[in-house]
């Protein structure tokens, strides 16, 4: 489906979802500085052809303006004429959409997700054992164990993409960039929000558990 064939009301609904979740996450202090980015896919999906709305680069996410979001295609290029620039990490969103076909991706930088990414960097994954909120990822085994992948963080964003491709785990709807932040996704904005909230809870749990038990 071409971008121009997507109904206006569908585009407006997508932007409304992004405004709502941006406001919520900003109220929680999850966008320090101008960090973090959010995106929601719009229209049909083919791994080689899709569009999504994403936060514009360098915006104060505690504020709401008409220039907060823009639409881009599967290559991260604007889908329509605009002077706005997409988030510097748009290519990571492109790759996650291509690999998963998900409907939304939310990325935040928090103290806890940064600390645990460094704490378990040599392991290349963050282990979580038996915590109830693992069920948020549709994993229902009693005392379930999961490993949240950690990938390298480079200033050159295209260098991150191959590692995301290699390390993405179909069972875990998220991937952590070392000393940077978590990317969480879902079939839609509601599910991506649920997954992100669960990840952030689990990161704080893991940190506090390690603090109590490491000597």
UniProtKB/TrEMBL annotation:
Gene behind this protein: mtnB
Cofactor binding summary note:
Binds 1 zinc ion per subunit.
One Gene Ontology term of the molecular function aspect: methylthioribulose 1-phosphate dehydratase activity
Enzyme type, top EC level? lyase
The protein's UniProt keywords, in alphabetical order, are: Amino-acid biosynthesis, Lyase, Metal-binding, Methionine biosynthesis, Zinc
Q: Which InterPro entries match?
A: Aldolase_II/adducin_N, Aldolase_II/adducin_N_sf, MethylthioRu-1-P_deHdtase_MtnB
What this protein needs as a cofactor is:
Zn(2+)
Official protein name in the record:
Methylthioribulose-1-phosphate dehydratase
């Amino acid at each position: 489906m071409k971008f121009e064939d997507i109904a206006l009301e569908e585009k407006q609904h997508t932007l409304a979802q992004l405004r709502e979740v941006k406001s919520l996450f900003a109220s929680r202090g999850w966008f320090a500085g101008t960090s973090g980015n959010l995106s929601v896919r719009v229209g049909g999906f083919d791994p080689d052809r899709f569009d999504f709305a994403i936060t514009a680069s360098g915006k104060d996410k505690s504020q709401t303006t008409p220039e907060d979001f823009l639409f881009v295609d599967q290559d991260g290029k604007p889908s329509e004429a605009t002077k706005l620039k997409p988030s510097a990490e748009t290519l990571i969103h492109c790759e996650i959409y291509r690999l998963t076909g998900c409907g939304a991706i939310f990325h935040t930088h928090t103290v806890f997700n940064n600390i645990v990414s460094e704490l378990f960097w040599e392991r290349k994954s963050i282990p979580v054992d038996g915590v109830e909120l693992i069920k948020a990822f549709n994993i229902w085994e009693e005392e379930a164990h999961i490993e949240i992948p950690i990938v390298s963080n480079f200033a050159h964003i295209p260098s991150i993409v191959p590692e995301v491709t290699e390390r993405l785990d179909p069972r875990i709807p998220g991937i952590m960039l070392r000393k940077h932040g978590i990317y969480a996704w879902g079939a839609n904005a509601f599910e991506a929000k649920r997954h992100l909230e669960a990840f952030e809870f689990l990161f704080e749990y893991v940190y506090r558990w390690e603090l109590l038990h490491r000597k």
